[in-house]
Amino acid sequence: MGQPSRRTRLAACAVAAGALLSAFVPAAGAAATPAGAPGTVAADDPVPGHEGMPDDGFEDAPEGEQDDLTGPDGSVSGLAPADVLPAPFPGRAGDFKLAAGSSLTGLVNDLDAALPKQGLTELMEQANRPAGWESACGSKSIYGPDLAVNHRICWKDDDATSTEWIPQAITGVSDAQEDEDWGSSNAEPIAVAGYDDSNPGRSDYTSGRDNCVQDAVSDACNEKGIRVSFFNQATQMYRHVLLVWPYVNSKDHISFDALHAREGTCTSGVTASCAAQQGIHAGGMVWYGNYLYVADTANGMRVFDLRKIMDLNPDNDADVNDPTPDGLVSDVLDKKRVGRQSNVWYSYGYRYVMPQVATLKFTTAKNGGSTKGNQCYSTGRPKASYISLDRTDTDHLVLGEYCNHNNGGDSTGRVGTYPMTALTAAVEGAAGTTASADLAYGLPAGTAFNGEDLWHKIQGVTRYEGTWYFHRSNASSNGRLLQATPQTVGGTPQLVANTKVLQSSIGPEDFYLAHGRGDGFAPQLYSLGEHAPTTTCPGCKREMYSYNMSEVIGDFGS
Question: What's the whole-model pTM score?
Answer without folding.
Answer: 0.90
